[in-house]
Amino acid sequence: MLCTSGPALLRQRSQGRSDTVSGHHHHHHHHFGDDSGGAGDRRVAWAVAVNVLLTVAQAVGGIFAGSLSLVADALHNLSDAASLGIAFMARRIARRPSDDSMTFGYVRAEIIAALINYTTLIVVGLYLVYEAILRFFDPEPVDGWLVVIIAGVALVIDLATAALTYALSKESMNIRAAFLHNVADALGSIGVIVAGTLILLFGWTIVDPIITLVIAGYILWQAFAEIGATIRILMQGTPPDIDVADLVAAISEVRGVQNVHHLHIWSIDERHAALEAHIVLGEGEVDVAAGDAVKQRIKAMVSDRFGISHTTLEVERVATACTGDSAQIVGHRMAEPEPAEAGHAHHGGH
Known about the structure:
CATH architecture of the largest domain: Up-down Bundle
Order of helices and strands: EEHHHHHHHEEHE
CATH class of the largest domain: Mainly Alpha
Number of strands: 5
């Protein structure tokens, strides 16, 4: 028997209720605490406004002072403002209920925003490396006092912005990406202050590009460390905290289960995982009631042990179970589309 069903997870439109329909076990989590609504949005909006003002001040000061590290910090801060703006919009989009065009809902808007922000961090980091290398070969005079004063103000604002988004960053990959922008900025401001001080005391202008390279290195390190998780979710990868072998073994041990195959597990977002699988019942589990009981035992187990609350199970009997490639434990081979016959080709204009 050839089995070709794909992921069947559909979100309810807006009620946030639990349903059991045709073996589909649903727990909805549309609300993630008070910070997921207006209060959190206001904090992010304030952070955007503060970062825009800081960017202007740093850019003007860096140009007049001739400080590459200060201009670099301003450039990075501009990306902070943009990242916070993207994060703000993504939060609002993600709360939209699912509809006919987006049956999974819009929750992955935050994952896409995080990917954009981490990619931006990488681009900014590489650009700063390029500029710092050029400054090594073509050093310019730097006004140490102006650099220190503006960087000091920037540090205070960076810390304030980070404080506004810190609580939200614990539960949102999207906000965490924006938060890392701010943390990198705060460290960058500290580096600029150190560079300005050393220039004032010893005239070491070479410190300016060195500090810029340190800032760039931190930015790149953080971005590459975090971007993999966003790509994994968008590629529908298995959640990193779930061992597939352990999951299959646990399902196989449930009373009434003879075999499990065609298993797919993926992350809906960073907090919610989904599972679909085909379950072959034991010889004694032949009626509908017995099959339903087995499904409920599996759903309760995967929810309790693995934190999977979105589960779709297709029940099979031994006589009609999948065979061949369709019976492999993990996933299934996608059927190749049959080529259309020349005589049946459909042409427009009829």
